[in-house]
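Quarterly update from the structural biology core.
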Amino acid sequence: MRFSLWLWPYGRWGGLDAMAQAAQRAEELGFASVSVSDHTICTTGPESSGVGPVWPDWSVLSTFLALHTTSLRIVTCLVVPYRPVFPQAKQIATVDQVSGGRLTFAAAVGWLRPEFEMLGVRFENRGSLTDEYLRAMKVLWTEDVPRFAGRHVSFSDIVFEPKCAQSPHVPIWVAGGSAPAPIRRVLELGDGWMPMGGELDGDLRETVLRIKEQVAARGRDPEALTFRYTIGIGEANPALQSLSRSIAVDQPAAVGRQGSPEATAAEIVRFEEAGFTELAINFSGASASQVLEQLDWFGSEVLPTL
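Predicted structure, tokenized:
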């Protein structure tokens, strides 16, 4: 099992330097990655409740974190339809170059309709845009003379450089639930599956098995896929309740206190037994110092137990 430090919500950090410090500490503790999330703007209506107001540009933040670490991977979850395919593919490839091949691209279709409207993107097209942009980006990243003809984007007679540092391109994880569309996207285009919700003993466990079976039927190695989930540690953070599952709170809940290391480790083992290979940890601390305290607790108490 690998672990990732999920940085969101960003407002609690007080600035970029604290995020870099946390990423460095996670690297020292043996975490596999640090996770960056994506919104461009947030509307002020009730539909944005829990999203949070602070969203650094993903490419700048990812580059900043890469330059402050040496081995930690940068997992960036992007809402693919938000940005035109050319600048998006260029940013991904360039960040991969800057990081020395440490970028992982988690592709999401998005859900916040007012944000789509503000960005001038039709909400109803988000699925087809995601599929087509992913296919087009693969062409841009892998072909010397890239050509593509689609409903939303077409190109030929162009040069696209630099390519990704990783070969054939950055890993692509599909963010989404157990519905047919994201599962098809994993089978056709993905190197991993990253659900943001669900029950472990229900649809999550069943979907991992289903994806592995269908990948194998297509002649691909199911063990080469990454299966990643996000869990919370510490007191339930209201902003995370709709996106992550709080675990290990078997003592009176308070920020900075967790359940026993053994209980936390046992819950992690359940995910491993269900086929998950990476867990993103979202600590509930409301400030940088509280998150770092929880991170050190996890590193000194839970990891040795595992």
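The mean pLDDT is 91.
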